[in-house]
Design brief:
With 180 residues, the chain is α+β, with helices and mostly antiparallel strands. Helix content is 20%, strand content 26%. α3 links the parallel β4 and β5. The longest helix has 16 residues.
Length: 180
């Protein structure tokens, strides 16, 4: 399923493009610079281990030669069997920070998801930033990450018409192709 990208006013000659997997090494280097060596110990990392990135909803930001940003999407399943998507990590190179590029990448991912699926989208982040994109704090005790997280940072965006709300502990689906 193709990624649907809206036109965004991104910084100087930077284009938001689908994540085709050809920039995985540069993407990992960007994440290492942005989040440091402790990034693999975070609760969100447990939802990416052994998982398959949904490249059809993930995006990169590039000027054609340099990777300026990356935002990835991962399938997850809740303990009650409900499917959802996990957004992140989201990183922007230091030269492109404070330009709105991070928000534009998130909005591109959300637009692609909304065009094809009706699923809850979950992330760990700041409500002050993600709230403007429709995210809310998950009600206390409703979802559980594989490792502890600050409950004020566990956010979700529940789409219109979603009947199958995720509840309980989140994990990597046994067959990530189940979410399509």
């Amino acid at each position: 399923m193709p990624l649907c990208l809206r036109k965004f006013a991104v910084p100087k000659r930077i284009h938001i493009v689908p994540d085709d997997g050809q920039h995985d090494v540069a993407c990992e280097a960007l994440y290492a610079r942005a989040f440091g060596p402790g990034r693999h110990a975070k609760a969100a990392a447990r939802l990416r281990e052994g998982n398959i990135c949904r490249r059809d909803f993930s995006v990169l930001a590039s000027d054609g030669s340099t990777l300026a940003g990356a935002c990835r999407v991962w399938p997850v399943v809740a303990e009650n069997g409900a499917k959802a998507l996990f957004l992140g990590p989201i990183a922007v190179d230091t030269k492109s920070r404070r330009t709105g590029l991070g928000q534009q990448m998130v909005e591109a991912c959300l637009a692609a998801i909304d065009a094809h699926l009706k699923l809850t989208i979950i992330l760990v982040g700041d409500l002050s930033y993600f709230g403007r994109m429709g995210f809310e704090i998950v009600p206390s005790g409703h979802l559980k990450m594989p490792r502890p997280v600050d409950p004020k940072r566990l956010l979700w965006r529940v789409g219109i018409g979603i009947n199958d709300m995720p509840a309980g502990k989140l994990s990597v689906p046994r067959a990530t192709s189940q979410i399509s």
